[in-house]
Each structure stands twice: as structure tokens, then as C-alpha cells.
Specification:
Helices cover about 65% and strands about 0% of the residues. With about 280 residues, the protein is mainly alpha-helical. The chain has two domains: about 200 residues, Transmembrane di-heme cytochromes, Chain C (Fumarate Reductase Cytochrome B subunit, Up-down Bundle), CATH 1.20.950; about 40 residues, no CATH class. Helix 5 packs antiparallel against helix 7 and helix 7 packs antiparallel against helix 10. The termini are far apart.
């Protein structure tokens, strides 16, 4: 078991991170047309509206909660917050948003499996990744009673130390993790597996979601005319055209009122236009 734990918690994380980063980069470079979420909103919107909103609100909070909770050193928050307090905050907030995410994800799975139109247009990987996320979420909710039983924050510190050692390329003591209850270990392994499957599923659209934040900070788009060196106001209609429009209230005059004569079949104006107006239209 020592060798197995050493591989699962000391080597497997780097395999998953490597495939996650390089796989996403290669897919974006080679198959950009598959870089999408394959939304089925046009086929049916019923459960999608509630399910998608609940799922995304819950999963985003859980993702950033895990990210900050695991990667924030204890020396940083220990100056103003005890580990036990942080763990209780994580239990209550994670439990609340976990339930929201569970409800939304269950609605999305039901819609994709039991709606014939959605099922017909779904790939097997779409359903598989939803089921994997659902199992991961359920196991995460199962860990809440175990975390409440260890309210001193010791388990949270062990998990955070493991995650920080992985990212900083330091050695990991797998035996310490092996002593934790099984829901924590299963949650860790399945979470790493999701990163391993990430580049091969529709989850890659998460990259685009984070990249869209750059849209808020991009410079304004400047649109310039290709006609250079033309005087100011060259796109304004000539004076006689403005006068004709002002006389008719901005519309063409009716033939019966002495205006332009229309073609008897196609309704095309046959009255010669003023030279200035014709030149203005050609310029546009």
C-alpha cells in the first residue's frame, strides 16, 4: 500500500496536471472548432434555465473555495483566523453551495438522459463527464460530516499542505494522507482524474470563460474610414438633396403630388436625378 499511495498522491497528480495543461494547449492549437460547450439551449430551454444557473453558481463557488482553501498557507490566515474557524466556514458555505450545485447538476443530467432530443444530440463523453462530476459532488458532500467530526482543522491543514507541496514540487508524505477517511481519498483521486479528462471533454470551454474577463480590460476598438484625405463632411448629402428631403418631410414625394414618376411595373424611378445627388450616391 505504501507504493500505491506514493504513486497515487505523489506521481499521479503531476501526470494529471501535465495532461491538463499540455492537452488543453494542443487541443486549442489543433481543434479549435471543438473548443465549445455544445449548448443545447435551442433544442429545449425548460430545465436548462434553472439547472444551468444553479450548477454554475454552485460549481464556481466550490472551485474557487477549494482553490483558496487549499493553496492559502496557514501562516497567512493564521494571524487573524484559527484553522477550526476556517474549517467551519468552509463546511457551511461549501455545504450550501454544494446543495445548489447538486440540484442543478441533477436537473442537467435528467434533461440530457431522458429528453429524446437532447439525448440524440449528446455525445457519450457529455453524459459521462456529467456523471463523474455528479459522483464527485456527492462524495464531497459525504465528507462534510467527517469534517464536522474533526472541527479542529487538522484534516484541512493536512490536505492543504499536500496540495501546496504538489504545486511547489516538494516531496509528499503519502502515508499521512493514507490515514484519512476514505471519502477524502476518493474525492482527491476523482478530482485529479477530472483534470486528466479535462482536455478530452467539453470542459475546455472553462478556459474561454476565464479568458473572457480580459474583454473588460481590452482597449477600445477604433474604426477608421478607408477614404483618406477627404474633406470633413464629405459623406453629407448635397444641399439640393437636403432641400428636397426637407420639402417632402424626409420622404419621396408621391407621383400624384407632382413628385417623381415611378416605373409602371417595377416601381423604379425614371425621373433623372440631379447631378450632385447622383455623385453623392456613387461616392457612398
Amino acid at each position: 500500500m505504501t507504493t500505491l499511495h506514493g504513486f497515487v498522491f505523489g506521481v499521479y497528480p503531476y501526470i494529471c496536471l501535465t495532461v491538463f495543461l499540455l492537452g488543453s494547449l494542443i487541443r486549442f492549437d489543433r481543434d479549435q472548432y471543438t473548443w465549445k460547450s455544445d449548448s443545447s439551449q435551442l433544442l429545449r430551454t425548460g430545465l436548462l434555465r434553472w439547472g444551468s444557473n444553479l450548477f454554475h453558481v454552485g460549481i464556481l463557488f466550490l472551485f474557487f473555495g477549494h482553490l483558496l482553501g487549499l493553496l492559502t498557507p496557514h501562516a497567512f490566515y493564521g494571524q487573524f483566523m484559527e484553522a477550526s474557524v476556517k474549517q467551519r466556514i468552509a463546511i457551511w458555505s461549501g455545504g450550501a453551495f454544494g446543495v445548489l450545485c447538486f440540484i442543478g447538476l441533477s436537473m442537467l443530467i435528467y434533461r440530457r438522459v431522458f429528453d429524446p432530443r437532447i439525448r440524440y444530440t449528446s455525445h457519450r463523453t457529455d453524459i459521462a463527464i456529467l456523471v463523474i462530476l455528479w459522483v464527485q459532488l456527492v462524495v464531497g458532500l459525504i465528507t462534510l460530516p467527517f469534517s464536522w467530526a474533526h472541527s479542529d482543522g487538522a484534516v484541512m491543514i493536512i490536505l492543504a499542505d499536500w496540495a501546496q507541496r504538489i504545486l511547489t514540487l516538494r516531496s509528499v508524505d503519502a502515508e499521512v494522507l493514507a490515514g484519512l477517511p476514505w471519502p477524502y481519498l476518493f474525492h482527491l483521486v476523482l478530482g485529479m482524474t477530472i483534470f486528466l479528462l479535462f482536455p478530452f471533454s467539453r470542459l475546455v470551454h472553462i478556459w474561454s470563460g476565464f479568458a473572457s474577463i480580459g474583454y473588460l480590460f481590452r482597449p477600445y476598438q477604433l474604426v477608421r474610414s478607408r477614404r483618406l484625405g477627404l474633406p470633413h463632411g464629405h459623406l453629407e448629402p448635397p444641399h439640393d438633396v437636403r432641400s428636397d428631403r426637407a420639402a417632402t418631410g424626409g420622404q419621396r414625394a408621391h407621383p400624384a403630388a407632382g413628385g417623381q414618376r415611378a416605373h409602371p411595373v417595377a416601381g423604379v424611378d425614371t425621373k433623372p436625378q440631379p447631378a450632385a445627388a447622383s455623385a453623392w450616391r456613387r461616392e457612398l
